[in-house]
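Q: Give me a protein?
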Amino acid sequence: MGIGTPGGMPDVATGRPAAYEAGKRVVDVVASALALVVLSPVVAAVAVLVAVRLGRPVVFRQERPGRGGELFTVVKFRTMLDVDESRGVVTNEQRMTPVGSWLRACSLDELPSLWNVLRGDMSLVGPRPLLPRYLPLFTPEQRRRHEVRPGLTGLAQVSGRNSLDWGRRLELDVHYVDHRCARLDAAILARTVLTVLRREGIRSEGCPVGEPFPGAGPGGVS
C-alpha cells in the first residue's frame, strides 16, 4: 500500500506516486479533524434546524460504494421528509422542503461526511459516492471511478454538478482518476468554494435531487 511504499515508487493499488497518496491521506485527516472542530457550532446549529423543521433523526445514513466498490455508510444531514402516503408525501418532489433545498444548495448537508473522510471511507477530493444499485450498470471504463476513495467534492462537481449529463459526469470521474495530483486536488477545492457560493448545478432539469442514473446501453449513457 501507499504509505509503506518508497516515495519515488508508484503505489501498486492506485498507480500513482506513493508520496502523493500518503500526503493526500495526511491532508484528509488533518483537514477533516480541524474542520469538525472549527465548524462544530455550525454543525450543532444545522442539527437543531433539521430537528425542528424536518424531525428526527437529523442524520441520514446510507450505504454507498467506496474504493474498490466496497460498501460503507455515508452520513449526511437529513434534507427530505419521510414517505407518508396518508399525507400525499411520496415522491422526491413532495418530500423535498425549502429547508432541505437550502441545505443542499449550501452543501451544509455534507458536513457530517467529514467524519467519513476522517475514518478513511472518503477523501476531500474524488468521485462522488453514488448508489450501490448503479454498480452493475457501469461500463468497465466507468467502473474505474472506484479505483480511488470517493470524495466530498470532485472534478464533476466543479464542472457543472447535476447540470451535467451522466455520461459527462462519469467521464470526468475517470479523468480525475487518471490525472489526480496535489495541484489538481488544490484546484478542485478552490473551485468548490466558488461553486457553492454561486450555487451552481444544484439540480438536474425537473429533478430536485438529481436525475437517476439510466445505465449504459440503449437509452442510457455510453
Residues 103 and 109 are 5 Å apart (CA to CA). The radius of gyration is 18 Å.
